[in-house]
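Dear colleagues,

For the upcoming journal club I promised to circulate an example of a predicted protein-ligand complex. I picked one with zinc ion because it came up in last month's discussion. The inputs are reproduced below in full, followed by the predicted structure.
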Amino acid sequence: MKVFYSSEYVGSAYAFETTRKAKWVADSLARVPIPGIVLVEPPLLTWEQLVAVHDPAYVRAVQTGIPRHLAESQGFDWDPGLWPMVLSSNGGVVAAALEALQTGLAGSLSSGLHHARRGSGAGFCTFNGLVIAAREALAAGAESILILDLDAHCGGGTASLIAGDPRIRQVDVAVNSFDVYSSSAAGDPGGRHVRLRVVQDGDRYLSEIEKELEEIEREGPRFDLCLYNAGMDPFEGCSTGGMKGISHDTLAARERLVCAWCRDRIPAVAFVLAGGYIGWGLDAGGLVALHRLTLAAAAGAISVPGSGSPTDRPPGAAAGRARDAETRGSDGES
Ligand SMILES: [Zn+2]
């Protein structure tokens, strides 16, 4: 399984988890590999790919830093490293989507950036990689795409960008009402195109996700690709978004649930990291361990078509041992 990553992913001078943790996860994989995962550098996003989703004036502002209020509309300081960072990290989401269409499964250590709008950034999200990747997948021949967003916060930017395009649907289970939206505001009065549920009780987190997955299954759509925004910020120790009752084990179970659900229903899956923030209840090592749950579940639980691929085998001894270690929350680091 290819997982896209480049040192450009962390090239912005503004340092916080979203602009740094891809390297933390990549370094962790170098020290303690997950069997079957290969890190690959993605092509940079092109101008054309960006302006297919975002306003050219906004794209130019991020490129040049002018006007500054627009260049910093996502909420952090602009510097010249921001432009190559977003071309690379969003390019990684596109590369993962296209790779998944070919092989069945891929990922990127970048985030989905689901708050970004057409004409501005929001909530620390500069460009909406999920929607850019969805549009590129459609151009590559996919006909129907599911964006499954399990970040702690609501994906209002994504909802605004896919409004009116019935080929892209979103299932969004959040635990925090930041960037909340209504399906009617997203051009979907019947609630079939975007489904948003904001969980109020951490003990019901998994069952509410299951309900949403059952609901969309009942409607019976066929998807060619799932883009999974695998936020870890629902974790109860997260400084932003965390909800009491959602533990490391809860999120391990969530990743197994999502992988199994996708494996049985959707031929291609591409995942990205999304939210996850250190604070009083979570250090950098703990955050990396949480994101490794997604990688481990994908590497062990979803088979890839074709023979000879290291990810083609069913979960066997090596993958099983790795998965058990991930589930215990240890990647061998202190
Ligand atoms: Zn979030």
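Two points we might discuss: The CA atoms of residues 29 and 63 lie 31 Å apart. The chain has one domain: 2-328.

See you all on Thursday,
B. R.
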